[in-house]
Amino acid sequence: MIQLVNVNKSFGNNQVLFNINLDIPEGEKLVIIGPSGSGKSTLIRCINGLEEATSGQVFLDGEELTRKNHTKLVRKHCAMVFQQFNLYPHLSVMGNITIALTLLQKKSKKEAEQVAAHYLELVGLTEKANAHPPQLSGGQQQRIAIARALATQQKIILFDEPTSSLDPEMVQEVLDVMIKLSSENITMVVVTHEMGFAKQVADRIVFMDEGCIIEEGHPTDFFENPKSVRTRLFLSKILR
Amino acid sequence: MDMGPFAAWRWQRLFNDSNIFILGLKNTLLISFLALLLALVIGFILGLASTSSNKALKGVTRAYVEFFQNTPLAVQVFFFYNALPALGIKFSVRAIGVLGVGLYHGAYVSEVVRAGINSIPVGQLEAAKSQGFQTLQALVVVIIPQAIKIMLPPLTNQAVNLIKNTSVLSTIAGGELMYLTNKWVSSGTLNYGPGFVVAGVIYFLLCFPLAYLARKYEENLKAKTTR
Which residue in A4, A49, B193, B195 has a CA-CA distance of 20 to 30 Å to B117? Predict the structure, then answer.
């Protein structure tokens, strides 16, 4: 579903991704972990064209992502959930979810609202349809953002540290929604520091450090038998 | 006869010639309206272009803004009026008025638009792009509706300045309020006092409500965002 082939990425003289090769089959739940500044976010932003790889190729469903076609490809395949939610504050919750459906997918307003209602129910916020994002808690906003991503009915959803800017007591409500999603046939690529979530949901874990993929594996192997020294060091720091 | 600058007979004469002031007001309004329209069109196009990542586009808009902001409006208007006809390009005085004032304020509007758009967190554009919106589409449906609230007070101030700056056109016989006032005053009995008091009051009545609305709106906005 997603392929990265020899992807390098630099910002000016600062290279942040080194020769990344990654093949993510349809339906896989892939969790990317690693210390801050290891290039995790840049990596998933290369998948939907928010960053353009300096060299190398990215394929979505077999089609190469280019500067010309990335808008179209992303619209077809890929949605994203951000660390800061990035809901549109001038629109209601309903408006946030339906805007892409009516303007990009050309659904009728009624049809779009039906889809939106379905996903609002899934994230447990049906009663907030007419609220505006600034009136909601961080956890609620992120659940709306997930509903917004889901409503586009893409096969891929990218999560860029979806719980990192939440107050601790709101983390679980968002993780619960994501766990619920994991039973669906959606390709999920999740950058996170939530190791419990990674263990429970991931089909595969990728560990990154300093712009390289250091190690990858099934969560059981990965957490119980990390091969690389750097992985062990990282895990020892965060699994206390 | 009382020859004081504000003598009663001078007011009487002004009253008799009030149609001149009404004509001036009409022309000032017409030129202001068309120039504002031009300034908004130029300002939005250049303002949007200046937020683009395209360096050439950015450079062109920067050059435009710096040129028009750092040369006096009077010089620009004189150039249109005196230099262009020598090159075979002729405009009516009113067209020069609209063009001169419009181009000049377009530079300022462009800065307002640029600042307004830049004040919206970059995550908003990224969210729209991640949904598959083109940049321009994202600007129209996501960014500008948020930025317009921030842009409205400074845009209104620009409108106020624009109205006042149409008075520069009196130097090229622009037919607007300042020009007609000055013409009326200098022909005949030199009614400087009443003439310019009335012109000033008319400008004030045009500008003050706008400035007042802009301030009120801004205060409301602040109260809302700090709540």
Answer: A49
pLDDT digits (tens, 9 = 90+) for A28-40: 999 999 998 899 9
Domain that holds residue B215: 8-226
| CA distances to A28, A162, A192, B188 from A143, in Å | 21, 10, 16, 77
Q: If you measure CA to CA, which chain A residue comes closest to B148?
A: A90
Asked if the structure places residue B191 within a domain, the reply is yes
CA-to-CA dists, residue A231 to A31, A234, B150, B212, angstroms:
14, 5, 48, 63
Q: Is the dihedral of CA A62, A63, A66, A70 positive or negative?
A: negative
Domains identified in chain B, total number: 1
Check residues A97 and B173 and name the one with the higher pLDDT: A97
**Is B2 within a domain?**
no
If pLDDT is split at 50, 70 and 90, which confidence band does B227 have?
very low
- B138 within a domain of the structure (yes/no): yes
- Smallest Cβ–Cβ distance between A86 and the set B124, B137, B145 belongs to B124
| Residue B106 burial by Cβ neighbours in a 10 Å radius (0-12, 13-18, 19+) | buried
Q: Is residue B1 part of a domain?
A: no
For residue A105, is pLDDT > 50?
Answer: yes
Q: How far apart are alpha carbons A75 and A66 in whole angstroms?
A: 14
- Over residues A202-224, the mean pLDDT reads 92
ipTM reported for the complex, 2 dp: 0.91
Q: How far is B152 from chain A (nearest CA, A)?
A: 16
Of the candidates A50, A78, A103, the beta carbon closest to that of B126 is on: A50
pLDDT at residue A238, rounded to an integer: 82
Q: What is the pLDDT of residue A132?
A: 93
Element counts in chain A: helices (H) and strands (E): 9, 10
Q: Which two tokens stand for residue A87?
A: 């809901």
CA distance B206 to A51: 49
Q: CA of A240 to nearest chain B CA: how many angstroms apart? A: 33
Question: What CATH number does the domain containing B219 carry?
Answer: 1.10.3720.10
